[in-house]
Automatic annotation (TrEMBL):
It holds the Pfam family Sigma70_r4. The keyword Transcription applies. The keyword Transcription applies. It comes from Clostridium thailandense. Residues 24-92, 135-184 form the RNA polymerase sigma-70 region domain. This is Sigma-70 family RNA polymerase sigma factor. It comes from the Bacteria. Keywords: DNA-binding, Sigma factor, Transcription, Transcription regulation. One of its GO terms (biological process) is DNA-templated transcription initiation. GO terms for molecular function: DNA binding; sigma factor activity.
Length: 192
């Protein structure tokens, strides 16, 4: 989506059907993934996809574009919440609802499985890495070099100064300028 997501959301809130459709299309893959993880007798995957797409519309209408939290995280949570509400409303017996059924202690079976993987965290990290890569591309080679030297390779500015044949003070100034420039680009890309 080439247009900024917040701009799209504002257009959708004003009734722009094209903007709304683009946002729905962007998040439909996650609605499909969520729909595939649930089962209720008498429902098929298209029913849950429709619930997920309706959740995207709900998220558009409720989301505050002035908040610092990412819309992607917000919409993912809204989709899961809406799908799980359908599950809770339609649960008649433990055998009707896959891993989201409640056990005798009142916990969902899925929560009793051990997993370190968090799809929301993973999605946010991937989004942040993409933004960071785009900002790093805006730096010149010297700025990239000192950022990678100091932050990625965890090497000292004293060693950098020796390597480049400059004073320690010059290395500090070079790092400050590169970080300031990187922050400026990250703000433009709405990283913060």
């Amino acid at each position: 989506m080439s247009e900024d997501i917040n701009e799209m959301i504002l257009k959708a809130k004003k009734g722009d059907k094209i903007a709304t459709q683009k946002i729905i299309e962007k998040y439909t893959p996650f609605a499909i993934k969520t729909a595939r993880s649930v089962y209720i007798k008498g429902y098929d995957i298209e029913d849950f996809i429709a619930v997920g797409q309706a959740a995207v519309i709900k998220a558009i209408n409720i989301y505050d574009t002035h908040k610092s939290s990412a819309f992607t995280t917000y919409v993912f949570n809204t989709i899961k919440t809406e799908v799980y509400q359908v599950l809770r409303k339609n649960k008649k017996e433990a055998s009707c609802c896959s891993l989201h059924s409640l056990n005798k202690d009142g916990f969902e079976f899925i929560n009793t499985l051990v997993s370190d993987f968090n799809i929301e965290e993973d999605s946010i990290k991937r989004e942040e890495k993409t933004i960071l890569r785009a900002a790093l591309k805006k730096l010149n080679e010297e700025e990239k070099e000192i950022i990678y030297w100091y932050f990625y390779h965890n090497r000292t500015l004293k060693d950098y100064g020796k390597f480049k044949g400059i004073s320690y003070r010059s290395a500090i100034e070079r790092k400050k300028k590169a970080v300031a420039k990187l922050k400026k680009y990250l703000k433009k890309l709405k990283f913060f």
